[in-house]
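Table S2 (text version). Query chain:
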Amino acid sequence: MQAWRVHRNGEPSEVMRLEETDRPVPGDGQVSVEVLAANINFPDALLCRGQYQVRPPLPFTPGVEICGRTEDGRRVLATPALPHGGLAPYVVADEAALLDAPDSLDDAEAAALHIGYQTGWFGLHRRARLRAGETLLVHAAAGGVGSAAVQLGKAAGATVIGVVGGAEKAKTAAALGCDLVIDRRTEDIVAAVKEFTGGRGADVVYDPVGGDAYAKSVKCIAFEGRVVVVGFASGTIPTPALNHALVKNYSVLGLHWGLYNTKDPQAVRDCHRELTRLAAEGAIKPLISERVAMDEAAAAVQRVADGTSTGRIVVLPSGAAR
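Corresponding structure-token output:
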């Protein structure tokens, strides 16, 4: 079969190669899954760069989440077992971790419902305990992770402020339902949040960016606010000033969704059941900005790495309808 493989670490467009390789063989507790759609995530870029918390042996195939079909015909969401990632016709995955793909979503949409929405749900509900009527500030609101958080925040009854970079992304965030959109390139985030909230600030901040985004967030956080640290897409890991957290009485909450698969797998299944319900009701729907062919995958991963994409880019197998 033909799959994308990485033989050395570097930028995705430089190190990903489409080549012939053997179909992976399931081990104990694993099943073979035919890939129907592979959603590109920022961790795929980090894997290529050798900067992800998981470092599979070289060579490996990127692709951390898919919608696929098992040999018995079950349509599922899966996180492939690396080094055999989802940018390939077939993967192997742990059978116990498979989730049923929602009937209300097509293959590309279903592929994008997994990691980003699970992360959003756990971050907003399990960690931050977001309540209806609170104000939620979402960084990178037009991106894959941020767009999921925007939709989940609105579904929870929150007022949502989205921060984006650029006019086109601002249009995307507004279409997603943000009550206020702030273009960080032209507007003062802190001043805009304070003005919109009457000086109170944001009750919950959802931050997959780090760096300057985090620094500005804690300047406009509300009394008893919660900052959910999801990732560091900016490339800069902030160093929280704990004296500042003490004086302003806010909490900094870390979220590593992958730990729930090992520490509390039932919580993952419960979350998926809730996400499936919300999708069926139309309250959430993954924003798919591009559906690309397999031979375009390396360029697509690079766009995600560069932060120029909106929503999700999904890779479809050769010959699939786009």
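Notes on Table S2: The CA atoms of residues 132 and 156 lie 6 Å apart. The first strand starts at residue 2 and ends at 6.
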